[in-house]
Amino acid sequence: MVELDCGRKTLKYMLFVINCIFFALGAVAFGLGIWALVDKNKMNVLTKIGAASSNFNINGLLESAAIVLLVGGLCVMIIGFLGCCGAIMQKKCLLCSYAIFLLLIVVLEIAAIVIAASFRGKVTTEMKSFLRQTINSKYQGRVDTKEPFSLALDYAQVYFQCCGIDSYADFNGASAWKKTGEKGTMKIPPACCKLKDKDALLKHQKYEPIDWNCPYNPTAINSNMNKPCWASIEDYLKSRIGVVIGIAAGILVSEILCVVFAFCIIRAMRGGYSDMTGKV
User: Fold this and answer.
1) Close Cβ partners of 135 (under 8 Å, ≥ 6 residues apart)
2) Could you give the CA distance from residue 238 to residue 245 in angstroms, rounded to a whole number?
3) Which of 67, 146, 182, 186 is the most exposed place for a label (fewest CB within 10 A)?
């Protein structure tokens, strides 16, 4: 009996510790969600799939992930707190409700992961299509622009030192881009040119190319015309979304462990040990 009670106590404290970790993970997720929403990285505009006709008022992929972190982190903090209380108080009804509720969340999370994985290729295809279509309808080709999409794409092209989504030819149909300049007709946007200091443009929109003739006579030496941007944009998204996936995986493992320990304690109580205060 003493050994069984000792085992029960061990489960109790393990459940308490795991729920403390669970609470901490929720707090981290909540904090990262706030940070991601406050972060005004210009490239976030590029993830607003389908926003071309709505002035970019919808949430992009990264903003949506931030909202998931924010709401999910808050829920996890609440569940972790309740789990700690349930582990210490060891009320059978509280532990049952906690375990069942947590088990439902685990099932929903696994289903969400499966759905997200199945739509991954579709999202990538739609995003590329959205970027190309928005270039045709909105891209202005000016480094001093205030138009959100143009500013975001130029930021990406300078940051990644690339040009276009699949190639510089993506700009051939850009109806909002006035290609006539002081030296003739521009073949590539100024943001596709190599700069003396790219941080000057990224931080202060100060444009200074290594060759002022670059937009009119681009070459592999004075421009980035031979490097498309899509691979770099995709890697950027994966690195940001990877943070969300990592936290979600950690939370999911913690949830499964919490469910197992909660049901173990409930099983011990059903075995005749209703007094869970530690007395033998």
Assistant:
1) 153, 164, 165, 170, 171, 173, 174
2) 10
3) 182
Cα–Cα distance between 190 and 182 in angstroms, integer?
13
* Tokens 């200091």, residue located: 197
Number of neighbouring beta carbons within 10 Å of residue 184: 12
CA distance 232 to 162: 9
pTM of the entire structure? 0.63
- CB within 8 Å of 90: residues ≥ 6 apart: 12, 265, 269, 276, 277
Cα–Cα distance for residue pair 202/225, rounded to 1 Å: 19
Burial class (CB in 10 A: 0-12, 13-18, 19+), 148: middle
pLDDT tens-place string over residues 34-56: 776 666 556 666 665 544 444 44
**Measured on CA atoms in the order 146, 148, 149, 151, is the torsion positive or negative?**
positive
Residue 174's identity, in one-letter code, is: A
Amino acid at 190: P
Give ∠ CA 201-133-167 in degrees, rounded to 5. 60
Distance CA 191, CA 151 (A): 10
> Is residue 141 a contact partner of residue 189, using CB atoms and an 8 Å limit?
yes
Q: List the structure tokens of 30.
A: 């909540």
Q: Crossing angle of helices 92-138/61-89, nearest 10°?
A: 170
At 140-156, the pLDDT tens digits run 998 888 888 898 899 99
